[in-house]
Structure formats: C-alpha cells, structure tokens
Design a protein that fits this description.
Strand content: 25-35%
Structural class: alpha+beta
Distance between the termini: 106 Å
Length: 158
C-alpha cells in the first residue's frame, strides 16, 4: 500500500534560506579578512582631448616615491604600493576594508600619442598623466575655397 504525502513546497524553505545565508556570510567574512592581503587595482579614468590623452588614477595614501610609471612597447604601466599604516596596532582596528599592498595597471596606447613627452602630476591622491598626441595625429582643418568656378569646371559643364 502506498502512502500519500502532501506536497508542501515551502516546508524546507527556511532551512534552505538559512543554509544560503550561512554560505554567503562565510564567503564575505573570509573575503573581508583577506582584503588587506589581496591585490588591488586603483580606479582610472581615461579621456581624450584634441591635443592629448589623459589618464587619471585614484591612488589615496600612496606615496609618490612608491610609484613607478613606464611605457614599453606602447603599453603604459602604473605600479605602486599602498602601505598599511602601523600608527595603530592591528588588534585595535575594528574594521579594515581598504586594500593594501602592491598594485599594477596597464593600458595600451595608440600609435598616435607621443610616449616620450608624458607629464605626470600627483595631487590629493590623484595621479594625472598627460600624453600629448603626435603632430601628424592631430586633426587638421582643410579650408574649402568658395568662389568663381575654375576653367576646368566651366569647360566640363558645357
């Protein structure tokens, strides 16, 4: 003889929800504990003007002497390190969310820029790299003369 059981789709939902919450909490707690050990990449904006390419990177609490900026084979690389401050002992911290340690960001540069003339400025935790365009890459305006038709155009119209 078969026993009929009533279908209750939400009967185990609370236990499933508890299990999912536990899994996600474990993952996020572990990620928070390891955040100062993992690598980080500073945020960067890149924009172009008529005469240059500009790269802005957020590097708060990075000492300028810890920055290494170079161009090799049309690849711009920004390397550096944000060091963990030891002004307060680690056991006194209640939360550490910012990443520390070495970082590296690389960007491909077009052949239209003059990598030899890059200027770097570092103020208020923002690194600004200004990369001028080559003269041949800058837009050129071509003047169109409007006036009396030339002899060749007048002869072709007949």
């Amino acid at each position: 003889m078969r026993t009929l059981s009533r279908f209750e789709p939400f009967r185990r939902a609370s236990t499933l929800q508890d299990q999912l919450n536990r899994v996600f909490n474990d993952v996020f707690e572990r990620a928070g504990d390891e955040s100062n050990l993992t690598s980080w990449a500073p945020a960067a904006d890149i924009f172009e003007t008529e005469h240059e390419l500009v790269v802005k990177a957020d590097l708060p609490d990075v000492d300028a002497k810890d920055l290494d900026i170079r161009v090799e084979n049309n690849i711009l690389t920004i390397r550096g390190e944000r060091k963990f401050e030891k002004k307060v002992s680690e056991d006194k911290y209640l939360r550490v969310e910012r990443a520390y340690g070495s970082f590296s960001r690389s960007f491909s540069l077009a052949n239209t820029v003059n990598a030899e003339a890059i200027k770097a400025d570092y103020q208020n935790g923002v690194l600004t790299l200004t990369i001028p365009k080559r003269e041949e890459a800058k837009p050129k305006q071509i003047k169109v003369n409007v006036g009396a038709p030339t002899m060749a155009a007048a002869a072709g119209a007949k």
